Amino acid sequence: MFFHDLRLERELKIEKRIDADTDHELHMHDLLEINVLLENDAEFRLLHRSFSGQAGDVFLFRPYEPHYNLAVRRDKPIHWLMVLFSPSIVRMIPYGYQLLYPFYTAAATPHIPAASPYARAIHAAAAAAYEEQEKGLPGWESKQFMHFVDILVSAYRYTLEQARRDGDVEIDAGIVSAVEYILRHITEDIDVQHLIDLYGRGKTYFYSTFKQAVGVTPNRFIHRLRMQIAMHLLKTTDKSVTDIAFDCGYHSIHYFNKHFKEYRQVSPREYRNQSRREGAANVAGGGR
């Protein structure tokens, strides 16, 4: 198993993928992932279980969850749409933090079968979002984001329906509330002790339960989200590094630079310069 250190230049990425591997080492990353299977049979393998997939099926993967998508037969490679996004993107959606329930509910199944109307809705929205990206018409980013919200809403409603129907799918409301609080206040001061007090079960229990559900400690989760926001602002605005640090909830530019370099292996200023050079090269080469 290996950690795939994916770095999104935008907070949302949609790709069409093809793979004929029938066996592969599991990988994991710190992004949320939705896969929509388009063609041929697949095995969606997790660390301790696997799911058989058919065209139209949808699979949701949490950050830091070991997984890999495999073809059942090498001569019939799987085709799928992969939606990758940072949890911080939901800050732009009214009550968007609630839509992350499916990704932070450890007991819920990641598999939404093709026969479900929710899978069909996700399939249609993902296809439309990808088409907007490929056509690249004016305003395509906004249209793509609208379809992305539809995807999240369908996954959220499916998870809640399954929880009510099965009864044995437990949602740790305390941890979900902690995640919601973090997402709502990600650019503000966040006192982890306040989260512990809200949870009401003690520091050790809160930390272990949070890490089991989310994949990382609360502090690491907060920093990861802030780094994703910082990358977005560095690439898309002319704000100073100091202003961006404060916008992301840091009161010390030294502390911000330290965390950013740990996350990206370059300073914020170097990252901005690299992004601008790459953007200029893409324009010169005719790419979008």
What labels describe this entry?
globular; 288 residues; 3-stranded antiparallel beta sheet; Jelly Rolls; disordered N terminus; alpha+beta; single chain
Description:
The chain is α+β, with helices and mostly antiparallel strands. The protein has two domains: 2-166, Regulatory protein AraC (Jelly Rolls), CATH 2.60.120.280; 173-285, Orthogonal Bundle (Arc Repressor Mutant, subunit A). The protein has nine helices and ten strands. Residues 1-5 have low confidence and may be disordered.
Average pLDDT figure:
86
Q: Which geometry do the CA atoms define?
A: globular
CATH topology of the largest domain: Jelly Rolls
Helical content band = 40-55%
Q: Which structural class is indicated by helix and strand composition? A: alpha+beta
CATH architecture of the largest domain: Sandwich
What is the strand arrangement across the widest sheet?
2-9-4-7-10
CA distance, first residue to last residue: 34 Å
Based on CA atoms alone, the radius of gyration comes out at 19 Å
Binned strand content: 15-25%
Could you state the CATH homologous superfamily of the largest domain? Regulatory protein AraC
The low-confidence parts are 1-5
Instruction: Tell me the major beta sheet.
Output: 5 strands, antiparallel
Overall number of structural domains: 2
- CATH top level class name of the largest domain: Mainly Beta
What sequence of helices (H) and strands (E) makes up the elements?
A: EEEEEEEEEEHHHHHHHHH
> How many E strands?
10
Count of discrete alpha- or pi-helical segments spanning 4 or more residues? 9
Keywords: DNA-binding, Transcription, Transcription regulation
Pfam family, one: HTH_18
Region (Disordered): 269-288
Domain HTH araC/xylS-type: 176-274
